[in-house]
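re: ur question from yesterday

yeah so i grabbed the chain u mentioned. its 575 aa long if i counted rite. heres the sequnce exactly as i have it in my notes:
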Amino acid sequence: MTVNGWLQIALYCVLLTLLVKPLGGYMTRVFAGERTPLSPLLRPLERGLYRLCGVDDADEQHWITYAVAMLVFTFAGFIVLYALQRLQAVLPFNPQHLDAVSPDLAFNTSVSFVTNTNWQSYVPETTMSYLVQMAGLTVHNFVSAATGIALALALIRGFSRRSAQSVGNFWLDLTRCTLYILLPICIVIGLVMVWQGVPQNLSAYTDVTTLQGGKQIIAQGPVASQEVIKMLGTNGGGFFNANSAHPFENPTALTNLIQILLIFSIGAALTNVFGRMVGDQRQGWAIFAVMGVLFLAGVTTAYWSEAAGNPMFAHLPVDQTASALQAGGNAEGKEVRFGIANSALFTTITTDASCGAVNNMHDSLTPLAGMVPMVNIMLGEIIFGGVGSGLYGMLLFVIVAMFVAGLMVGRTPEYLGKKLEAKEVKMAMLGILILPLSMLGFTAVAVVIQPGLSALSNAGPHGFSEALYAYTSATGNNGSAFAGLSANTPFWNATLGMAMFIGRFLMIIPMLAIAGSLAAKKIVPTSAGTFPTHGGLFVGLVVGVILITGGLTFLPSLALGPVVEHLSMHAGTTF
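ran it thru and got these structure tokens back, copy pasting raw so excuse formatting
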């Protein structure tokens, strides 16, 4: 570890914190329907869209109606994206004349992008045409992100409203998020990306002759427009297979900084939106603090482990080659433009959020550093998290934490003046526990049957980690992977697709039920016995509940993978 590395991490934390309040204030005004600097330009377009779609902007929805609207919209998007892939060969904007995508891969990719997972079992530049990339994948990068934010707003309204029968209007939330937040930021930052060297064109791939006289095909296309929303919307699906390690997706140190700021920006700002909407910004900062503590623990562990290098070199004969390879830490799988500190930071951020973009290869991380992204996703990606999903996932843990606090003092738990009764606690636990059921259940099947084992490129604990990471990433709607897994097979495409569906929708329904239940309740005035939820004690309680829940659920599986691999490497044992 170096001073320079820590300074870069500290600079990132400062910049992120400075973004929270202004972006949170702007987003609050947008979702309240208040006037913003963009209103003169976008308000007529917004009204026109409502008239075209038959939406009444004065109408609000019960939580069940809100959920149905979200599910219908998602299913329609799935069908359109699946059709685009299957008909790719006969559709325009396909200069490389790529064939239709196979049925199992088209299913997997469609589920992946409508659930904001962006798991890619394929090589993008040799599989997807420009039309599919633009009208299919990029569009879903926008709307799946907007859907997540809309769902978080529904839960926030549950806490902020009293005796209400509605949690908002899905169509309004979706439209306003896309028009006023996602599109403007993407247009501005997209131009910055083009300035920095990210391609944005519809040209055919370029055939070149290398300095050694060999032939090479250089892929290009409408990269910048997809790159920005992949980060801002915590989608993560790259235009190129190497993702943000590719110089066309991430050409400079400035673009690398912009990308990691984009990943956390909306998730962090939503904590401020939460505080503003419930009438006490301190509540939002308390949630921000919980996320910050867990983030710093993860990035510290990852950086320390990667900087320490591969312990196997201690058991090899001393020679100049071995010493050089590990002179500054574990350099394997790193993009040399960014180095170990930025790789550890990027790895932690992209798996704290449901992004999954990578600027280094996670399969090459040391065992404990590889465990950090796994744990981040296993906890539900609540550390700033996916846009919207991070906040509502964190609030589920807050409900459980307040229930525990209520048990300790012998009074009915409450949060922000809302009594937390059996229904809310049961729904919160259902939303939390559905994730490990999918992560661990699918992994258990995959590591004992031939269709699952045949895709693993490593034996022993690292092979187990490849399978565990895949289903953890799919269920957590992250999309990153230990790249040694060959997942483009019918078995993996189908099971990963099911895991993505479970991780997105079987968590959302209980969460919306909580939103509807809370919105209908009256707010109870604070008293001397009310537990304060804006101080250090609250932050510590929530962090403790998260870590204990995660440890009890996932420690056995982690012991079979990264932990035993770490101990084996120190003992000089390989598999």
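noticed a couple things. The first strand starts at residue 206 and ends at 209. also The beta strands are 206-209, 215-218, 414-415, 418-419.
anyway ttyl
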